Amino acid sequence: MGIESHLGIVTTKLDFLVNWSRKNSLWPMTFGLACCALEMMVAASARHDLARFGAEVFRGSPRQSDLLIVPGTLTKKMLPYVLRLYNQMPEPKWVIAYGACACTGGIFNTYNVVQGVDKYIPVDVYVAGCPPKPEALVQAIVMLRKKIEKETLKDRV
Amino acid sequence: MMREKIKEIIIERFKDQVSFDDNAKDMLTLELKNKDMLIKFMEFIKENEELAFNLISDITAIDYQYRNPRFVMVYHIFSIKNSERIRIKLPVGEGESVQSVTSIWKGAEWLEREVYDMFGISFEGHPDLRRILMNEDFKYHPLRKDFPLQGIEES
Amino acid sequence: MSEKKLMTLSMGPQHPATHGVLRVILELDGEVIEKAIPVIGHLHRGVEKLGEDRTYIQNIVFSDRLDYTSAMNNNLAYALACEKLFGIEVPERAKVIRVIMAELSRIAAHLIWLATHALDIGAMSLYFYCFREREKILDMWEMVSGQRLTPSYIRIGGLLNDVTDDFVSALKKFVDEFDFHIDEYHTVLTKNPIWIGRTKGVGYISAEDAINWGLTGPVLRGSGVKFDFRKATPYSGYENYEFDIPVGSKGDNYDRYLVRMEELRQSNRILKQAINMLPKGPIKAEVPFIVFPDKEKVLNNIESLIMQFKLASGGFTVPKGEVYASVENAKGEFGYYIVSDGTSKPYRMRIKSSCFINLSALPFIIKGAMIADIVAVIGSIDIVLGEIDR
After folding, report:
1. Is this complex's ipTM strictly greater than 0.95?
2. Measured between CA atoms, how close is C381 to chain A, in angstroms?
3. What do you get for the CA distance between the two ends of chain C, in Å?
4. Residue A37: enclosing H or E segment and its boundaries?
């Protein structure tokens, strides 16, 4: 029961409208850790234009963004800052782990490297590569949009 | 040859307090016998007009785990005037400290901090000796041979 | 009398203008900076300790990821160090192609510097121009090695594989058009009063202080010291090329900007000479037990197959000794110090990075300046955190 009792058709249309507006205005945060940050910057420039998907501005403040792209190696010294930034982002928020180091630690299996950012924060899309081509980031955003389309209002209250 | 001339000038001043390694092919390599002569030696090679080793290139250390003394400090210094390099080695035992060369080359400040962080060798007279790459409260020294590559699980 | 109270401001690791994960703790008296303490180590991946656990061939991939804006120069430093240690002589064609790749890396790194430095100060249009040129260089790298950012193309004993004719024609087209683009960048910035107001007189360091702090690269040349490792200790055939070393006079941000812009032009000049000089011949030294054999031999010949298998799996044993080799990177002197104990893995692999020492002079340079200048000075020193933290 709940909100869907007699108003089934209204809530599905509402879901559709809310998801359409969320997926077309994903604003990432400027967050570059290592080499993959350069490919992320290339994806935002003129050749593979991320702005056509609605990622018009890269916001500096986490309070005004809803997408966290993690490019590069996450180290144990940087971990508290990433967690604090993730907690400061308001709901709804999504995370893309871009590059092998963010997915699983990459080629660095050492004392200071976290073996995958998903050990601490939930990840929506994983992009493999070292570094992945900017086209892969564009495909990741397209996959994320398809994932957002299928969400319902009950998932993110 | 410039290298021979540099070797002669150093031998004339320091005689048997240094020993040259003739196997090193890429630059003049010598080892100091005594820790206390480090500052005098470094000041000499910087201030002497013919040697003029004025650009500090690198300061690092090597851990020979089963030898005594355990560590060897390695200084690489470059001379802009002669385009020559020199490598100076200094054996240091575990728990001993070395005089800091920051009074001679200011660029040595962060390099010595990194040696302290990675190996645990402390430097007397350093203006700000604390860890630089690892966290301030990290208990171990990562580049020692007995520290495992994947780190030590701290709860 | 009340004593002066300073405000502490943390310019955190996540910041649009710190070029990576650099944290600077500022102590401010109003708008004037009394103290700036850089805190690094947020990207410390333990490459030096990893180097002791991997064979000499496996260590090449780590060298790309250090200064990731100009990857081939780092490969070159590692290859030079290993070749000096093993006593390998590289063929002529490989030397010329190495110079081509090193100069392309220098241009690529300076383009990133220009794009981000101008973006920090407010000139955003240059960002798109510079990345447009950089895309051409990355496409060329993809043609020869399959990878855009971290090619690992320069190997011990030579190169990964030969350059194709497509590469040479793309390179000729790039070199012909690049001088015009440099003039384009000059028209945007060099006589712009806002640019001059924000960079002239800011971030001053004198020549003796620069030498005392151990600075290398354009930071040293901007202060008036005419010194370049490619001329002083030439490697890979640099003594055969004609190029000038640009030198500044005042040691401030504006002079460092002019030095790097002129270096772009000189790199283009070296590329033109290298294309004309490209000789025919092999690209790998014929040294069994150390250098991989050619792929055609591996697929047809059983001895080459066994050799390839042995080299890739266990590595090779090398003479004992130690060696130091360095190159003139886009940022300064980048070097490797390798100590070998006779096994197939290095005993100690030390990476000398110029940005580490250049950044240590930041508190000295910025003392007494206004808070808006710190972004300009960090951009002008040109740091890459991958190289600093290793």
Report:
1. no
2. 18
3. 47
4. helix A36-44
